[in-house]
Amino acid sequence: xxxxxxxxxxxxxxxxxxxxxxxxxxxxxxxxxxxxxxxxxxxxxxxxxxxxxxxxxxxxxxxxxxxxxxxxxxxxxxxxxxxxxxxxxxxxxxxxxxxxxxxxxxxxxxxxxxxxxxxxxxxxxxxxxxxxxxxxxxxxxxxxxxxxxxxxxxxxxxxxxxxxxxxxxxxxxxxxxxxxxxxxxxxxxxxxxxxxxxxxxxxxxxxxxxxxxxxxxxxxxxxxxxxxxxxxxxxxxxxxxxxxxxxxxxxxxxxxxxxxxxxxxxxxxxxxxxxxxxxxxxxxxxxxxxxxxxxxxxxxxxxxxxxxxxxxxxxxxxxxxxxxxxxxxxxxxxxxxxxxxxxxxxxxxxxxxxxxxxxxxxxxxxxxxxxxxxxxxxxxxxxxxxxxxxxxxxxxxxxxxxxxxxxxxxxxxxxxxxxxxxxxxxxxxxxxxxxxxxxxxxxxxxxxxxxxxxxxxxxxxxxxxxxxxxxxxxxxxxxxxxxxxxxxxxxxxxxxxxxxxxxxxxxxxxxxxxxxxxxxxxxxxxxxxxxxxxxxxxxxxxxxxxxxxxxxxxxxxxxxxxxxxxxxxxxxxxxxxxxxxxxxxxxxxxxxxxxxxxxxxxxxxxxxxxxxxxxxxxxxxxxxxxxxxxxxxxxxxxxxxxxx
Length: 644
What we know:
By secondary structure, the protein is mainly β. Among the domains are: about 5-100, no CATH class; about 115-325. The strands form 7 sheets. The protein has a 31-stranded mixed sheet that branches. The protein is elongated.
């Protein structure tokens, strides 16, 4: 069936039911100058082009001209947020994760490495010399090769081109169009491919297949649009890997100022058996295969510039993935996954979708990063691998964040939804839970902005680490169904941190030490806690801490900053405040009527040992005349008012 072209639209992906199959899509289209909204049902694949997208239902297809693709709106109906968050936080979650036409204007190159001792110095094409130029032009079933060809051994099968060479310094300029073509290169020398308006499809394998052990540079020429698509089935070649539409045996370094659209149907979109380093260009990659990866580096992935957008709709698919390390130092990244987790028989565990995934350490030190994962068990950003050998657990991989602007959204729930419990009420058995940001090892935040929202349902957490979390600065906003931050222990030395849960704890961990910064936590309605340290270490030595929930943990005796915990009897109040004895407000916080009881925690330098204070409640708003709940004097560093 030929695709049908309609007028420009904005598309919103609503939901995913049962993994890859059956998406229901809202289409907001302009018809005769008027906007209309309709639902397109039963969509099982979406292909993105440079100025269009094609939605497939079985063999039937419909193509839309697009100038914006809104993958998910964050402006949802959400009564809980307005009840529990101070007004200054409310707008922090009003943001979208979307593929937009304006993304093409955001391309900025990674700063050129000038230190020859830098491990990335040789990854910049500017530091290489190209003495020969070969021009490759595709024209449907024909391909021509011109220029400095004396050192080349050329094999052609229709539009499938294979080149062997031992020469150095060769640049290949590729242009033209074909629906059945490929470019394959064998050499012991590094090479450069310039994509200069290429529109190529290979139904049976990679479009670009580099068997070089050295670097392959791909330069996306300015003012060009390039589209590469592989097929659903590959013809195997003995002794050779073919991992994706663009594949390199050696290092793969991508730069430029033009546009590149890649579709990987069989495995990956862009893949290297060593590493991928993206320094520029506008790159959009779609990966449709189960467990497929849009951008994959077996050893490392590095992104320092350009715009990289990925869309992965296969079960357990990944957006950007490395089997080892992953570094992001700059650029714009928008990564979307829509598939569900799948059960792995060999591992006896689930494998989940993830927008950005490293098997070991991940370092994010710059850039704009937007991630959306809509499937069951889906993750936004995940670093590390938990290994179990002879019953012992090894937490391999850390996540360090600083200087980046990060937005993450998950909308899936846990799979299986209901887990078995042991005799102690603990959940047991394998499962996959949605996490906005997850680190198997230590999670460190030094600076930048991190906004995360996990809204799908049970077990959707904001930030999680199986080890320690350390927050030294930056702005963190975490709002989820499950814990806002879950860790074995956490140290906060600075930063502005909001942790909010609608059904569980704001903070949940075995220990919490606050030395500075601002920490505001909110627990869910059903006997959940703003701060839950399991009755273990909770120290406040500086900064400001506010906790709201049905319950809150008491600070440890080693704390050096005064703190107040107060419990209010069950009745409707919209806010609670800590005030000086004369009524001067120190801190005012909204509280929901959903709690069985209201438990509030205050700690700041404004609370002094020996000082006199009040706890006030407000029925409708902070403009009301307050009710005095407690009047008290701090005879030590800590006081509990009322009972649990």
